[in-house]
Amino acid sequence: MANIYYNGKLMETTDGRFNKKQSQFGSDPRINKTKKVFKIKLKTILWAMFWIAIIVLGQFVDRGLITPQKALEAPITKVQAKDGVSTVSTPIVENKLSIKDKILKKFGTDGIKMAAVATCESNMTADRIGDSYPIHGQIIPSVGVFQIRLLKDRPSKEWLLNEDNNISYAAGMYKSQGLTPWLWCGNHYKQFVK
């Protein structure tokens, strides 16, 4: 045993291994004190994240920002079964292609050029109606993604306002006439390439 003195007074006695110290005041609280470390288990963190997500999602639902119909992009239908128990069926939602993707698919190697023409003509808006002013003395509106003029030999306005029909009809026009039907945009499409 070793004694430690300070100003002539015995302060501590150790057993020589420096792991047990005794003083006149009792055990040294600084020695062998285990630090309290909060060990949070991964499972606890995952549960906390799950409940936070549920609460946040619930807030969006309560405010009407998210509804099951918006989340699925299709209506949910309720079916009444014969035994009186109602069931809910949700239709399978197909991945809907954007207008740009449809144009790229339809026009193949010229898809980027024709997507730029569609951007120039209608900003790729399917229900766009333009040219409501006289052109060569006639007011004949242009409709749809590619702003196809409603001439007598062309399909109806309603048919061309469907984006798929408009793109298909424009593909036929492009195949037979090139960029001629889209005179200004056909000459300036490069500034609309993204």
Please give a structural write-up:
The protein is of the alpha+beta class. The protein has three domains: 31 residues, no CATH class; 48 residues, no CATH class; 94 residues, Lysozyme, CATH 1.10.530. Helices cover 37% and strands 15% of the residues. The protein has seven helices and nine strands, in the order ββββααββααβββααα. The strands form three sheets. The protein has a four-stranded antiparallel β-sheet with strand order 1-2-3-4, with no helix packed on it. A three-stranded antiparallel β-sheet has the order 7-8-9, with no helix packed on it. Strands 5-6 form a two-stranded antiparallel sheet. A hairpin with a 2-residue loop joins strand 3 and strand 4. The relative contact order is 0.08. About 3% of the residues have low confidence.
